[in-house]
Amino acid sequence: MIEFHGIAIGDEEIRESFMRCSGPGGQNVNKVNTGVQLRFNVRDCASLPEGVRRRLIKIAGNRMNKDGEIVLTVQKHRSQLGNRQEALFRLDEMIGEALKKPTPRKPTRVPRGARQRRLDDKRHRSRIKRFRRSVTKRTGPADVGPVLFRAVI
Asked: Model confidence over 95-150: pLDDT tens digits?
């Protein structure tokens, strides 16, 4: 029985398999199975509270397979023992993170001053773009009909 942050998980719920892995180790790399693949079935674990289970599934992300197992592969250390401890440490960290209840978001309002600055900035941008327009275009009441010009000779 292994205890993670006050939650006792049975040894039968965690499966470990060993494999050869790359990295430092010289001839040892080709002979000894030092890499560890730890599998922990989250969906079937009775000792996990429902809220922690949901958060753990969310935290696991891509490390969870379709069967509801978290799969952690560790090849960091040269020894099998070091990799086993590292895999259990990673699982411990994930469960510890899942135990933390997320703080609910407080809805906030945009301050009046920020709203006013945003509108002032929009007016300023509008003026700048208006001054870039062609001067010959007429607007307003004089734009009602055709404009007649007489040439004075």
From this structure: 999 989 889 999 999 999 999 999 999 999 999 998 888 766 555 555 556 555 55
Residue 35 lies in domain:
2-99
Single-letter code of the amino acid located at 99: L
This prediction has a pTM of 0.65
Q: Which residues contact 12 (CB under 8 A, 6 or more apart)?
A: none
**HSE toward the beta carbon, residue 136, CA cutoff 13 A:** 1
Q: What are the DSSP calls for 84-142, one per residue?
A: HHHHHHHHHHHHHHHHSPPPPPPP-PPPHHHHHHHHHHHHHHHHHHHHHS-SS---SGG
| Total domains, the chain | 1
Residue 88 placed within a domain: yes
